[in-house]
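Encode chain A's predicted structure.
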Amino acid sequence: MLSTSSKKQKYVEKNKSRPLKNKYFSVEFKFWTSHMVAIAWVVFSIILSIPWLNDLSSIVSMPIAILIIAGIGYIPGYINAFNLTSLLLDRQPKFKDTNPKDDITILIACLNEEDNIPKALRYIKNQDYEGNIKVIVIDNGSTDNTLKKAKETASLLSMTVKIISEPKAGKHNALNTGLKYVDTEYLITLDADTLLHRSAVRYIVSRMKSAPEDVSAVAGSVLVRNSRQNFITRLQEWDYFLGIASIKRMQGLFQGTLVAQGAYSLYKTESIKYAEGWPDAIGEDIVLTWNLLKNNERVYFEPLSVAFTEVPSTFKHLARQRSRWARGMIEALKINKPWQHPIKYVRYLTGINLVMPYLDIIFTFCWIPGLILAFFGEFWIVGPMTLFVIPLAVLQNYVLYRYQNQVFETLDLTVRNNKLGFIVYMLFYQILMSPVSVWGYLQEAFKLERVWK
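Encoded structure for chain A:
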């Protein structure tokens, strides 16, 4: 097996003969080129869909037919074409410093994490980062032995870990309490059930040190740790590896990653304090990120800085998590209007979220019933024309898979064999997630009780 350095050298040599691959295109060029390709795709789709549109309008009227087909085909096709073009044009900037030594602080907010906190601390201890890593564990009202386990593990590993308590419920309260003790320029938030790859801290700090001064946060690449537990976790493995990663790569290209996720991200401490810390929101990391963007600061994404998190293993808990994410997006939209962002790329990226509830509603109440009707031979909503969007989605996933595979080779990791999970993810995952998202929108509309865990 090739060493990491050998793999990097082989990759560089292979691309010397491919000048177009290494050619730099400005962010502005990438932005408008992606738009033009996406618009061309939609025009092409509209032309092809005219017979379908006419047939459906004879049943539900033309305006409703347009609303349905736009939600099923035109808008998703536009978004996919924009994402795919952006991914093909993306070139991650080189690190200016691959071995930074800045002091950093890692905040870990805990609620009943006695089984996970020892492992999280061990993986922090094993980092190849040469700077000083300070760790602050904030217990947020645990009723198990989280505090005891944290103290025992810190002593066993000879780690200096500050352990504090915040009895007031809410992850934002725990993180804001921990923020008071941070005296380093950079801080990392890490969930207790998230394990860092050996080079994760080095890569994420390297990205921040290589970024322009107005970059205030870098989102790490969070992947699934317990993918072999059952089929629910296998599905999520592909969602994190392809779906979430593709969105973050596209957003990072335009310098506006919309979620520096609390599970694993790096922030400038002064930027967090200027934004008045983590807000009282169910999606505190989403709203915080948008507050940073509103302050004319940028947020990057570093695919080489990998962490592995434990994902829900039952559909009940998965649905609860994803409805919470959907609700957090609505909270962020209410607090930070897309048109108020000073950076035009961020205005566009956050603006896409305005149509997500519409797309999820159409998918839930039109696509899924249409799929059932198609099974019985009625192709009013779902028919041969709807299959036209599948090749675009497949191509997008293929492009990202190739890129992610290169990332894994660099990190001496191996992509697991999970073909069945991939097929089901491609064909059925959205059928599960759109109704869950709609439930999250309803929770926010009716102001139902917020639940962290």
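The two ends are 41 Å apart (CA to CA).
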